[in-house]
TrEMBL record:
Residues passing through the membrane, by range: none
GO MF: ATP binding; ATP hydrolysis activity
Organism of provenance: Pseudomonas poae
Keyword terms, alphabetized: ATP-binding, Nucleotide-binding, Transport
Protein name as catalogued: ATP-binding cassette domain-containing protein
Top-rank lineage group of the source organism: Bacteria
Length: 225
């Protein structure tokens, strides 16, 4: 079985400032991997994750998905399987349910439909009851908003989650709700994988089996926490 994602000499450069943001990086994410990346602010953690998500185009190098290079026309399909979650969720006006139904209005998901039972199960993992669906998105706390954003992604059954400090702005209880959702998603299919960028070393140890360190754009090797 080929790796889910592989990078070969991947770089990102800020041409305006003439600054290397990501040094040439070789990396492999296999089925079943739980990876954490820690490092100081500005070390390149988010740069690497956004490049993997193809949100910011790499300056040079290659990203392979299931052993194949990703053509421009395949990027929307790639993004439907490789999902990026930031620490600042962006929700729409309306209810929680409106937000969870929204992805199915997009062309790339027109053949799929909202599954209320699956969403209710996901809510349960985060300690939320079904009536949470009727809450107004504008009234949610930061932790509740992140739970909604995560469920909106998880209901689509991604292969890979790229988690960019998703609990950095949350209180401990909300952070555990997010962690519980990730654990439940990961346990549901042994072929899934995730990368969790975290500023919290305890969380990184708790939520990963492979720990990497980013320093000045250099991704340093794996250790077993």
């Amino acid at each position: 079985m080929s790796a889910l994602i592989e990078t070969r000499a991947l770089t990102r450069r800020d041409e305006r400032r003439q600054l290397a943001l990501l040094q040439p990086t070789d990396f492999t994410l296999n089925h079943g991997d739980r990876v954490s990346i820690t490092g100081s602010s500005g070390s390149g953690k988010s740069v690497f994750l956004r490049a993997l998500a193809l949100l910011d185009a790499p300056t040079s190098g290659q990203i392979l998905w299931n052993g194949q290079a990703i053509a421009n026309a395949e990027i929307p399909h790639y993004r439907s399987h490789i999902s990026y979650l930031s620490q600042r969720p962006a929700l729409l006006e309306g209810t929680v349910e409106d937000n969870l139904r929204f992805p199915f209005s997009l062309n790339t998901l027109r053949t799929r439909s909202f599954d209320l039972q699956a969403v209710t199960t996901l809510l349960g993992h985060a300690g939320k009851t079904p009536d949470f669906l009727q809450k107004n998105a504008g009234d949610l706390s930061g932790g509740e908003s992140q739970v909604v954003s995560l469920i909106r992604t998880l209901q689509l059954n991604p292969e890979v989650l790229l988690l960019d400090e998703p609990t950095a702005a949350l209180d401990p209880t909300s952070s555990r709700d997010v962690e519980a959702l990730i654990d439940a998603w990961f346990a549901g299919d042994g072929s899934r994988a995730y990368i969790w960028v975290s500023h919290d070393l305890d969380q990184a140890q708790r939520m990963s089996a492979i720990h990497l360190q980013m320093n000045a754009g250099v991704l340093n090797g794996a250790t077993q926490p």
